[in-house]
Amino acid sequence: MLLRGLASCPLCVDAPHELARNGHYCRGAVVDGESTSIVVYRKKCTVQDTSFALLPGDLVLPRAGYPRDLVLERLWASLEGSSYRNREFLVEHGLELPAPDKQISWSDSLDSSACRPGYGLMWQWTRAFDIRAQQVVATLLLAFRLLGLDLYRDLAIHLKSLQMVQPRAYWLALALGLWRALLEASCTDGHQPDLKEALPTLVDILLCSSSHTIIRVFSPSSGYREDAAGRSPPIRAAHEGAP
Questions:
Q1: Which of 126, 123, 118 is nearest to 206 (CA)?
Q2: Bridging pattern class, strands 50-56 and 214-219
Q3: Structural domain boundaries of the chain?
Q4: Is a pLDDT exceeding 70 seen at residue 4?
Q5: Residue 19's beta-bridge partner residues?
Q6: How far apart are CA 79 and CA 196, in angstroms?
Q7: pLDDT of 224 above 80
Q8: 178 CB-side CA count, 13 A
Q9: Eight-state DSSP code of residue 207
């Protein structure tokens, strides 16, 4: 079923060509709290000379070894102003805590421990998606205005709930507000999605920017692509990867 999720090349707009199987590779992932190895299949378009990796989008994000849900929860926590060293966040999501040490503070214990994911990596998640959000805000705003939406009624009033946004999440917050308004305007059942409900689909959109010759796509939504835009300079825990 996974291989059938992407039948033709999404880059061949005029005349999509059928993709050929191009092997597979294994990558690490965390599933149900346990580290495991998953198989990622690849396909190739001989016309574009481009390979596609079919990632199980409900489990992982590109270059992120941690579950998709955890990354989304950390992004939401950043939008709510939660610190990357927040003990409650680590406890709530069952993440590793440093061993208690009465000689040093909680913050210092994070610096000296090998907790995974490290706070530096979680900061990178937010920063990467904030940079991607900045790239799409103009497009979202254009769609917002074309639909005749109101900046106060449909945007500002909802963003008031995000009063303590982390500095590296401002563009992400703005893009999320615009996207939530667009989702509400396109709903036919009268449902008004809140900001947290709109975040997963916005993240999928932010992963659509094209990359180098290798473009990764999610399954079953074959149009999703990702690139390396927004990767930050190496900091603590940078070796763990970034979305």
A1: 126
A2: parallel
A3: 1-62+208-232
A4: no
A5: none
A6: 10
A7: no
A8: 22
A9: T
Gap between the Cα atoms of 181 and 5, Å rounded: 30
CA 52 to chain CA centroid, nearest Å: 18
CA distances to 82, 125, 138, 233, 242 from 121, rounded to whole Å, are: 15, 6, 28, 11, 7
For residue 207, pLDDT beyond 70: yes
Q: 68: Cβ–Cβ under 8 A, 6 or more apart, which residues?
A: 57, 58, 59, 60, 61
Rounded to the nearest 5 percent, the helix, strand and coil shares of the chain are 40, 15, 40
Rounded Cα distance, 34 and 31, in Å: 5
Q: What is the pLDDT of residues 75-120, one digit of tens each?
A: 999 999 998 888 888 888 877 777 776 777 766 667 666 677 877 8
**170 against 46, higher pLDDT:** 170
Residue appearing with tokens 């979680």: 122
String of DSSP letters for 171-205: HHHHHHHHHHHHHHHH-SS-----HHHHHHHHHHH
Tracing tokens 């709290």 back to the chain, one arrives at 33
Average pLDDT over residues 179-199: 88
Identify residue 242 by its one-letter amino acid code. A
- pLDDT of 140 > 80? The answer is yes
Confidence bin at 216 (pLDDT 50/70/90): very low
Q: How many residues make up the chain in this entry?
A: 243
Cα gap 236→54, rounded to integer Å: 30
Q: What pLDDT score was predicted for residue 221?
A: 36
